[in-house]
Amino acid sequence: MPNDIRPLPVFRTEAVTRVYRTGMVEVWALRGVDLSLAEGEMVVLLGASGSGKSTLVNILGGLDLPSGGRVYFRDRDLRRASDRDLTRFRRDHVGFVFQFYNLVPSLTARENVALVTEIAADPMTPQEALDRVGLAHRMDHFPAELSGGEQQRVAIARAIAKRPDVLLCDEPTGALDSKTGIQVLEALHEVNRDLGTATVLITHNASIQRIAHRVVVLADGRITRDEVNAARVLPGEVSW
Amino acid sequence: MRALDRKMLRDLRRIWAQSLAIALVLGCGVMVLVGAQATQATLVTTQAAYYERHRFADIFAGATRAPEGIVEAARLIPGVAQAEGRISFQAVLDIDGMEEPATGQILSLPATGPELNLPLLRLGRLPDPDRAGEVALAEPFAETHGLTPGSRFRGVLNGQLRELAVTGWVLSPEFIYTMPPGAMMPDDRRYGLIWMNADAAAAAMDMSGAVNDITLRLTRDADERAVIAALDQLLDPYGGTGAHGRDRQVSHAFLDGELSQLGAMAAYLPPIFLIVAAFLVNMVLGRLIAMERAQIGLMKALGYGRREIASHYLMLAGLIGVVGVGLGWAFGWWIADAMIGLYGDFFRFPFIIREWGAQALVISAVLGLATVALGGLRAVWASLKLPPAEAMQPPAPPRFSRGIADRALTRFRFRQTTMMIFRSILRWPGRAAITLFGVAASVGVLVMSYFIFDAVERLGDSVFQQANRQHVTLMLSNAQTDRAVQDALSLPGVLGAEGAYAVPVRASNGHRDRLTALQGHFPGAELARLVDDAGRVVTPPRDGGVLPEMLARALDIRVGERLTLEMLSAPRITLQMPVVEIIAQGMGQEAHIAAEALFAAMDSGPQVNMIHLAVQSDRMADLNDAIKTTPRIGGLLDWAEVRRQFDATLSDNLLTMVGIYTLIGVLIAIGVVYNAARIQLAERSYELASLRVLGFSRAEVGYVLVGEIMLLTLVAIPLGWVVGYGLALGLVDAMSTDMFQIPFHITRRTFALAALAVFLAALGSVLMVRRRLDRVDLATALKARE
Predict the structure, then answer these.
(1) Minimal Cα distance from A115: which residue of B?
(2) How far apart are CA B336 and CA B330, in angstroms?
């Protein structure tokens, strides 16, 4: 593909910085990040704690605003978005998966997914979403009745049910053992493969990087490595 | 300072708003207790001291005309310490600047100075024994008319117009509450007490060497009933109108009624507030401490013992308790000061002996601190039982399960956010119940407060719109034939006239007796009617009498039993009358009989001693002028004025009281709802932030928080109506005195107002908490799982 004719990236950041001020102290979480994410791409973000991975993902997902630089979702400048615009943006385009699942304990698996399908523009049914993560048979269980891996798969179903443009996953396997962690990665892999959803996956577990198209490494708020995986492996081949 | 103490102070600062809300509710309970008790104690002590210093008599008796020597005979009755005879009579007064006539009660002052019921000189001097036309006036009356020493006014004394000169203003323990005869409320404009030299009074009334009013002071161990019986016997040949103790002395009886109502309030209301406060403190402290679970685990991991940790949190609870009790004391004193000021002015106590109500202070402090300690202890105990490692972990997600209620709810296919509301209520029914109880209690308190207005309105309506439709009542000096009614029709402006007859009686049933009046009702009376509290017009039948409930209760008499009525003025006969009906009448004290039956028993033709008039409103001035010069008329009651006094007196006192209770009711609602919402927010901020992340707007997320609380509020309102109904019923019971019973009647307006006030207070509180949702930082709320 010639260099000058490329599809519009899903996300593009230019010199993004993020400074937290607590009292007299300034903490630079991001010190100028340039990154772009293509349609259908799966990117693993690696880095030690405090390297700025979560801050970057929060900014991409509209949970936080950069202190400097530019962030584009397609051709929209997220830095100029109002709170209302960001809510709309999250509702229509972004799926989140968190380390601690963030399920609503008072709703069953199906209802947790319905929470999103009720407000999304063109959702799949809760059943379909749960089917995709292999949990259709556990649909009427409350979170407290599900294992950690199952809860995380419900969270993934909830994230994809709206057919998001991008899936942002912050340490989705962080609280899981390796066996259930692999099940969760398989679910993410299938969604990326079958629906073509661009996926950003934060982890500090280096062995996971091999399942991605691309690996971006952050340290001290800067990108220190950005390379395409020559040989991807399936989640089932990963071990830690 | 130890680190743990520092932590406590910082924790307190962090949760200051919630702590303050708890302290305020607790303070309300303490405030009512301290305020009411201090007011009551102060007024009771002041009353006693006033009576003692001014030698208020114990026994009072009237007669038509008794020789002066009877006073000495009365002094010799066993148990009597002091006796004094006076001349007492009523006069119509003509005062400059006052269109209508006023009524004066003239009392003679012995030349040697009074020994009982000592008047307290407030301004000027007492009348000079050598100057016949000098008088001292009761301060309230004199002040109302600006009759300073040196002023003059005119009075019709025994049919003769006399000019009287004012020498001074006085107060008397005998007339703390000055009720014009026939009126229901004090009237300082139209009714005044006048003290005159004994010689001058005797000359004016042709009573030289005679008295018609005797007062006695008893020794400490005297038998009041025996003294009354002996005095009655002594006065019987001289037209005695029945001796009585302080309990039937108008001023004392009303003052006592007022004070016992205050006492009832002090006993009835504070427990309600303290119970609500206890629940609330329990709930809030419980949740606050439950959220400290990780810190409790950490402290245990660091080597703190259970006792140290428990005392740490109990101290936190204790501090909130101390603030609450302190606020309650401060506001209680402030309220007591306000109430004492109000009552002090109303009764014109010449001095106030301020009582602090030490007992109430101690009780409220003990109850207040016990309340917070209990709430704190319960919560700390649950956390202390956990092993430290587990306590430091985030709590497991709460278990939800499918009950019958849940399955029913699912059928409705609510939105998921609505399901979250219902499931939260079903999952923590205890917590929802406390919110329900608290909000219901505040609705109840408001219903009870506003009910007082309903009751007064009902009472006013019954007395002024239903029973007494006359504009003016004329009191005749002596009973006359019914020709007097025809004569009254010729007075200027009179549209209609109706005669009435009332005679003072001693009503007795066995050993119980009461001094009251027997009212004879003429058939076809349209102006003044006998009406019960339900608005029903009662016509006494010919074969017996009708009694109001309170009189029947005092005499312990039932329908069908016979009542003995001993007339205390001419013709002084004794009747036996079967009771044919007992009616509910809040202000009724008198016995009623058909006039025809009464005159048949008296063996006399029809007589009248009162005439009720309907008057053209623009001719009142002419009527007043005519009455001032009509000697047979002893007094006049202008019902518009009576109504004005009734409204003014009640509205002053009631507005203050109802204002305070409204404040308290609203404070409870705010305290309960604000705390419930804050707890919700703290416990579910993670969940609510998740909703925001998923793309729910602020309003949609706010709906989950506001919806749950407001749903509970809506359910609590009808419950609160039931609570209010019960509280009002209890209040009626607690505040009823021998003289007065509050009619029980709650309007829809009261229910609606109470509901509205609480609804708005709840909405305001929860919206205040909802604003905090906007400040939750989504990224950190999701990371920091606590």
Answers:
(1) B416
(2) 10
The H-or-E segment that residue B108 falls in is: strand B102-109
Q: Render pLDDT for B715-727 as a digit per residue (tens, 0 to 9).
A: 999 999 999 999 8
Q: Does the pLDDT of residue B391 top 70, yes or no?
A: no
Q: What residue type is assigned to position B299 of the chain?
A: M
pLDDT band for position B549 (50/70/90)? confident
**b/e for B758-775, b at 16 or more Cβ within 10 A?**
bbebbeebbeebbeebee
Quote the pLDDT of residue B17: 83
Cβ of B400 within 8 Å of Cβ of A106? The answer is yes
Beta bridge partners of A70: A14
Say whether the peptide bond before residue B114 is cis (omega within 30 degrees of 0).
no
Listed in sequence order, the residues at least 6 apart from A233 whose beta carbon sits closer than 8 Å to its beta carbon are A210, A211
Cα-flanking dihedrals φ and ψ of residue B87, to 5°? -110, 130
Among chain A residues, CA nearest to B686: A102
Edge-to-edge strand list for the sheet holding B59-67: B80-86, B210-218, B59-67, B244-245
Classify residue A103 as exposed, middle or buried by CB count within 10 Å of its CB (0-12, 13-18, 19+). buried
SS3 (DSSP) at A25: strand
Tell me how far apart the alpha carbons of residues B1 and B203 are, in angstroms, rounded to a whole number: 85
Are residues B645 and B183 in contact, defined by beta-carbon separation less than 8 angstroms? yes
* Amino acid of residue B385: K
Report DSSP state, residue A64.
S
Assign residue B348 a region (left: φ > 0; alpha: ψ between -120 and 50; beta: otherwise).
left
Q: Select the CATH number that applies to the domain covering A39-65+81-237 from these four: 3.90.1200.10, 3.50.50.60, 3.40.50.300, 3.40.50.1100.
A: 3.40.50.300
Instruction: Please give the average pLDDT of every successive group of 10 residues along chain A, which has 240 residues.
Output: 65 93 84 93 92 91 90 91 86 88 85 87 91 90 90 92 92 86 90 91 89 94 92 86
The answer to whether B547 touches B591, Cβ cutoff 8 Å, is yes
Residues B246-272 have pLDDT tens digits of: 988 888 988 887 788 777 777 777 777
Q: What's the start-to-end Cα distance of chain A, in Å?
A: 36
In degrees, rounded to 5, the angle at the alpha carbon of residue B659 between the alpha carbons of residues B442 and B670 is 35
Which residues of B fall below an 8 Å CB-CB distance to A? Answer: 396-402, 415-417, 419-420, 423-424, 427, 686-687, 690-698, 700, 778-779, 782-783, 785
Residue of A22, A106, A117 for testing the chain B interface, max B β-carbons within 10 Å: A106
CA distance B522 to B501: 9
- What is the spatial distance between Cα B297 and Cα A21, in angstroms, rounded to a whole number? 31
Determine the residue among B416, B419, B688 to mutate to test chain A binding: the one whose Cβ has the most chain A Cβ atoms within 10 Å: B416
Angle between helices B16-53 and B639-693 (to 10 degrees): 160
Distance CA A103, CA B488 (A): 89
Tell me A48's DSSP state. Answer: -
Identify any residues that bridge with A31 across adjacent strands, giving them in sequence order: A17
Walk across the sheet containing A42-46 and list its strands.
A94-98, A166-170, A198-203, A42-46, A214-219, A222-228
Cα–Cα distance for residue pair B21/B29, rounded to 1 Å:
13
Q: Considering only CA atoms, give the Rg of chain A.
A: 18
Is there a contact between B266 and B37 (Cβ–Cβ < 8 Å)?
yes
For B577, residues 6+ apart whose C-beta sits below 8 A from its C-beta are B544, B545, B562, B563, B564, B565, B591, B593
SS3 B593: strand
Q: Is the pLDDT of residue B786 over 50?
A: no
ipTM higher than 0.90?
no
